[in-house]
């Protein structure tokens, strides 16, 4: 006989942990209690066989839980006869808020059962599913601390909520159509509620209308994805340019009609997080081109809320929905009913509201598979605010991230909390979202940062915001060093690494714009040991929007004063106009208007333009993505490149550009030329890393930055490095793009304090 006090931290609230412990202990004849605290869960257990209880307990925890720490302490026997669940208490510490998770199979089955009291109820949930982070105001995660506090449970729901043996025991969003939230359909002068509201929304979607649908973390704009006119109208209204729309399908069988789905991708689609999964488009599928213009991948997700599931009524249309974020261009997703009517009325024909408040907006997560790994493109709903373990204790800090695809990161103890996708920091609404999310997570995790990290770029909104804050120590961290730091944090790399950071641009330390970087990085600093050759960036950021301008710069770098003739030979003059070409070539000579850049992203976009694939980016990285899509599989050819100099060495692709233009002029297909270019960059990266390894002896290699979201490139660089006996590492817990910057900033800042 003995008695243990057990303290558990991690994702252990709102996931059925207490009823699990209750049933587990009672089944073994143990006495004591379990309760939530603001730090997690604590329990005292008394009886015989406690060691075997603990062993089985660790391996049998609820599927949504994630135990970070488990501490035990033997205490005196108290002679308890029963095991009880006690009221929660706030002990001044903090715990992990569980992410929002998709509706479980049990709840979906009940919702579709005409004999069940929740038949057709669009807010059905239990301890295994439903909203969590998006409705939580503070911890402990109890109903009074959520937006469900506004709904008093009816006797039937209360009975479930209070019964430790029930699947809905302390399911904080527990409700039914007698006592819980309800839907409202608004179309012109028509207002309908409950089941009639959902039926009216389905009917409008079936007829080609656009409906703004309030989901778990914000609004979506939905149309029938197989209705070409409806999709084109939505794209025109939203000014979406060429960026692909996300799609929602009722089941995996429907997804397979349009995309190739591997077993691993199917598991992702069906996972409790229900992310958008990027899948290879099937040939000869029938979707309108306006769904995803000119890209080989389609982004699919399955319904992750019961309301979404009700939008697919059996076998009748719509069979597939466009489900894109409900927002104005570059603003955060809308979460309030009133704001939706104000901001989305020009985009949507009708609204499907509900009256459960969204406290914290959370956009959809986007992932893809690469080999045996899941890669994040956007980390948000379903994954946030789960902590990322850092493996060692450290001070509380705040990292403000970058400006594009912004996230921020807070740390406390051994944990890093990376925010959901905030967006591009270019307007007041996004800054407000940044601040409201920051204040919420600081309060929930009870973090008071001792120091703050920011990017070096003086014109980044995130940098300016950081510098305006008072009473906190501030540190600027170089952009690409932070990229490398993000992988070091994820992989637990404490010693020096060779970091390869390839992206579009980042503020360098020498007055130029970096982006093709080879660093020898440690936690307390880095050395820039090599980079792509820098060329002028005509018009500055305008060249990032217009790849043809960068392409001209590479032509001028190659041909000098004969650049105009080269532009004519390549067909660029005909496509963009002679006057425009002349103006850009003049601007290129003015260093104040055309800073030097080593950006790998700019190089890929330039080649895209030179091959006639894309001259303009209607969204970030479009031209480079289109070039990757063109690359022919099975092509093994390469182009010449040069590596010269040292500390830092310079990698020149002038020979590659010349050879590529020669190929294009002699009838070599765009696909083969694109593949040869990718093969060339891959070979150059591997060769440069080999040289740095020989110089330093470092075997851990970090590959990061937005360009390494290119699967064709990764599929050649990683095997090439492995063949040399090196250990390549890529981002796995945060995106490789600028959304991962904040984690790297926080990790590196803690090493400076």
Look at the structure and give the CATH class of the domain at 531-688 and 695-730. Alpha Beta
- Determine the strand fraction and express it as a percent band: 15-25%
- What is the overall silhouette? globular
* Second-tier CATH architecture of the domain at 531-688 and 695-730: 2-Layer Sandwich
Distance between the termini: 47 Å
Number of strands: 32
Our Rg estimate from Cα atoms comes to: 27 Å
Helix percentage: 25-40%
Q: CATH topology of the domain at 531-688 and 695-730, anyone?
A: Nucleotidyltransferase, domain 5
Low-confidence stretches: none
State the fourth-level CATH superfamily of the domain at 531-688 and 695-730.
ATPase, nucleotide binding domain
Number of discrete helical segments: 24
**Largest sheet, strands/sense/barrel:** 12 strands, mixed
Mean pLDDT, to the nearest integer, reads: 94
* Class by alpha and beta content: alpha/beta
Question: Can you lay out the helices and strands and say which pair or pack?
Answer:
Layout: E1 2-11, H1 17-27, E2 31-37, E3 40-47, H2 50-59, E4 66-75, E5 83-85, H3 105-111, H4 155-162, E6 183-187, E7 190-193, H5 195-206, E8 211-214, E9 219-224, H6 228-238, E10 246-248, H7 252-256, E11 259-260, H8 263-270, E12 276-281, E13 297-301, H9 306-309, E14 321-325, H10 337-344, E15 350-354, E16 366-370, E17 373-378, E18 388-389, E19 397-399, E20 409-412, E21 415-418, H11 428-445, E22 451-455, H12 461-468, E23 473-477, H13 479-491, E24 497-507, E25 513-522, E26 525-532, E27 535-536, H14 542-545, H15 547-559, H16 563-570, H17 572-576, H18 578-588, E28 596-597, H19 600-610, H20 622-630, E29 642-644, E30 649-652, H21 654-665, H22 670-696, E31 700-704, H23 711-723, E32 727-730, H24 741-752
Parallel strand pairs: 2-5, 8-15, 10-13, 12-16, 19-22, 22-23, 24-31, 26-30, 31-32
Antiparallel strand pairs: 1-3, 1-4, 2-3, 6-7, 6-15, 8-9, 9-14, 10-14, 11-12, 12-13, 16-17, 18-21, 19-20, 20-21, 24-25, 25-26, 27-28, 29-30
